Records
---
Amino acid sequence: MKKIIPIFPLGVVLLPGMQLPLHIFEERYRLMVSHCLKQDEPFGIVYYDGSSFKSTGCSGKITNVLKEYEDGRKDIIIQGSDRFTLEEVDDSGEYLTAEVKYFSDCSTSASSRELERMKTEAVEAVIKLASLNNRELDRKYLMSLNPVDFSFLISASDMMNLEDKQENLETSSTANRLQSIITTAKRVIMRSEAHHQLLKILGDNSDIRHIFN
């Protein structure tokens, strides 16, 4: 399905289901947000890396206006909804708009059983990683999520860097997204375990950050 929506390039990756707070201060984006609020319409966020923006993004619906300032600025919360690819960008108006084509995950060769197996492996990995950082996750809640929703929830976490988040946004394979989470979690676990082991050897007061940079 194709549609024309406002576009907001940002240095973040929005994923479906993700809550994102935004401080709207530029005039063109104030106008964009006002339009979206009046029309009850979403706008699209595409990742801007400082030189160009990606061709795949995610629409966001304004779920809350936290504060309105006298000068027109706003603090808002948006929730990620549907993924899209940019078809044609129009910069002739007060703010960017684009014709976008929405897409979802496609059916894959991975069976439902295989996706559940991968989700379970990913759940165990992220729970272990959280415990290494003295955090506790709700295993029952994570296991109750379907593989697609779970994959987007974890992809939006701080465990994933911006490039990984963008790749997981772009892929139309749930299995690929779950594998990305498993691979990343295991890599970070190994790094964290090595860090803790070195602290035991060298002492808690040793600054060993340079070893991991």
---
Amino acid sequence: MKPHFVEKDGITVAFFPDTLRFYEINKLTRNVMKDIIEGINKEHTMEQFSCDDKSYESLKKVIDENCNCGWGHNKKQNDKGVVNSGKEEVNILKKLVINITNVCNLACKYCYANGGNYCSEECMMSEDTIIKALDVFYGHYDNIENIQIFGGEPTLNPQGIEVIGKYVQEKFKDEEKEKTKLGMVSNGTVMDEKLLEIIKKYNIHVTVSLDGPESVNDKMRIFKNGKGTGRVVGDNIMRLRKFTGEPSCIESTYNRVHEEMGVKIKDIIKYGKEEFGIEHFHITPVSGNEDDEFILSNRDEFVKSVSDLMGENSGDIPINDLISTVINILKKKQVCKYLCEAGLVLLSVSVNGDVYPCFMLIDQQEYKMGNIYEDDLFLSKKYNEIKTKLINFSKFNDERCKNCFNNTICHGCIGSNYFETGNIHRQSEVNCEMHKRITEEVIVELVKKMRRSQQYTEVQ
């Protein structure tokens, strides 16, 4: 793929999607590169831009080394969409999400899960079903890297949390392979002594949902009686921090209320860091239909947050996941052909044992892959039909994505896609544009940072 040129704040950058390399250039160099790419006569280009032969050939070499030579071209990909590293393929599940309850004690206005119960009757996952799920997935995979305890609100089923903790602890008691990491996503409203002990005993990493200070959080994240959750959650975070060192992450859903109240992404992060000492933040735009009252009018704040969090005057404020993901891909040069790996190396189990690619798709029957009580779950027609559909998607072949400069970096959520566009492989236009602009902003900020440390490459 040809390079993508980014221009901002007096900086011009040539970004090569195929190799994930980028170079700061001047405008004259950009013009010469464009001529080379378009096949303009060499002598004409050299004369028009006063470019000598050595400089021309040097630029041509840079282009030849970085174009049409990367992901989706001559690199062999495995069925997980990552370029093979030469290592033998391993049968490992990256994440298993266990929905131990579809009961929730809140009435968050933007909830995609119908108040936590998805489209089912409210119930708790039984101990037998939890153990069966763990038996099935540990029996099929060589290992599970992460188990995410989910809901509903998982802390309403403390027995279920403990069953998972005991199972994993016992399983890895005498095994040399790396122990499965346990995580839990909670609304933070229930945190009694028993729960604190369970979290500490089984080293469960906790993510708490909080949309910022009470003034904004309590507009959307409310109890069934309409009362705001902010103060209760804040107090529980402090107790959790004191007793266990958790939560390790705050998850926020950025919505119209933030926009209308002038609360920026950096404000949420500063609040979480200064108030609770949290360093990891997962802040995403709210999902929903265009006519939902909580939907953002645009995604400009996510784009602006890049300079707010990476700029020279940002201080030691932590970086949001949407930004750090782009940085990590640029650094590690590890690319996935999928927007999301759900259904391939990430799977979810509902309270009754139904298996779905993503927890957001629970009770969406077209994406039900099977049930843990089926003897041939992983061989069943439905399971493999859905898995094949997911495997066959590639950003490098999709008509909408294949020529996009961001296709080696772009990522997303098939669940959010489903609720926004009705197609798990189709991001909304506004989301797609946001990701492209974030990538451009990150590249420019990295160039600025390298300038400040005098560790950058400028092609002239």
---
Amino acid sequence: DNGADVINLSLGSPLPSRVIADAISYAHEQGVVVIAAAGNSSTSLPAYPAAFEHVIAVSATRYDRQTTFYSNYGDYIDIAAPGGDTRVDQNGDGRPDGVLQETMTQDNPAEHDFALYMGTSMAAPHVAGVAALIMANGVTHPDRVEEALLSTAVSDFDGFDQRRYGSGILSASDSAQYAGRHFQFPRVALTVLLALGALALARRSGGLSEFSHRAMVVFATFVATGVSALTVLLGWFGLGFAWLSPFGSSPLLWPRMLGLSWFVENPLWLSALPALSLYALLGSTKRAAWRAGLVALFVGIAGLLLGEAIAPTADVAWIPGAGALDRVWLLCNAAVAFMLGSVSARKA
């Protein structure tokens, strides 16, 4: 209720709490990713809130990728991340292998200092930070964020044990790239197909140049997916530009970068209303270039909404839950937006 997109819980108890479980379920329904430390008791007994549903439980690893002596393990572990081990110096830097953090001093809680600590409480924030990076790339649905984290975790090393590592060790770069490959690229293909359908209607009516036809497809794809097509293409050739990542989603979703998720996920914005408004203002125009732009814009909006319905990356606000009702809303509005594009294409 206070605007958090990711909640890190570096705390735990062997006893479950119904109050905390209900709070976590509520947070998940609001589209919040919840991450928790697995516990430091070196036991397979579950720790809470890490073992609750809708929580990503994080165990701790050290420099050599082995899980630490203190980290809990068990079937509830989802992923592992660096937690430190101050008993050793495996990287040879002359200091204990802890996680450096700013915290209050032991002698005076009013003073702050940098110190090396170890624990699953240090591991969980690593995952929380990467979750925030994924959300900054346009994937905000908590289940999709978890999918990106777990699907890219590293597990191809000696000594891997699912009960200790969950899906594997956190990989920040792969998680961020996964968001583009698996959530945005299908939208690119989907929008191109919609645009080609509208293009066929426009060609029947004539009045548009071949350049306008091509530009219409490109613009529709951009409206639906931003620069995702470019970033995916660069990725295939081993290239990438980090500054492009935030723009790898529809421009209609870019206000998220300004902290305006509440606006972007508003059901009036994630709908055909913007398309209907523009059609009311400009639908009667006779200029071919304007008409082509409207077709591309409407088809792009349809592609965005249809893509969200098929593989949601965000939770539509004000609609209960994050499942079937969201999809019905998005599908219906995608149909309206595409219909507007088709009508405009016939007039082009």
